[in-house]
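Input record (one chain):
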Amino acid sequence: MEPARSHSSPKPSALRWQILRRALLRRHSSDSSEEIILDKVSRRTRNGFDLIPAVLVNDGGEEGSDALPKRDACFSYSLPLHNAPKLFLRQRWEDCLDLNDYKVCNQYDVDNTGLVCQWPSEDVLAYYSLSHLDLFRGKSVIELGSGYGLAGFVIATATDASEVVISDGNPQVVDYIQRNIDANSASFGSTKVRSMVLHWDQVEGLDICGAFDLVVASDW
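The corresponding structure, as predicted from the sequence alone:
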């Protein structure tokens, strides 16, 4: 029988708990070896896929009347189209959560997935939408579980859809969506754009059945 190894590799489940712990404690000084190990079990890319170029234009460290809260940042997304339209989206700094965020989750029985970051799958859905503009033209579209809603904003800006509803179950996320709708309203042309708090299992009283031509969503 082989002797037991003194330094066995940690289980993936234990490593995922370390990812959660790091997010909660906001540890930004982890050593490189720890980062490499945790990246092996993380389901998301570190920098997204960079399918739609984005640059930081404002952050919470700046002062003045237009300054954002320290936990927020505003990014400018340049859509790869002939007229190069831009979207300005305000969102949280990655993994910048606090106790109040978890209180909201408990109060509304939702998670904070959409608040954590701009997920790479949203980049893919946004890029797919740009590659299939005719699919959305003249249509009423709803995005489910949008998080910060990059794809929904891209559809609203670039495809000549008649209506775009960007929805999420977390009311804090929807607050960000509405702020971004207000900030980018001049880019939507004749497309009607609105936000919605929508829980997939709580649709009673909502007059949305049969209201949309297309439903889009992305996950991780």
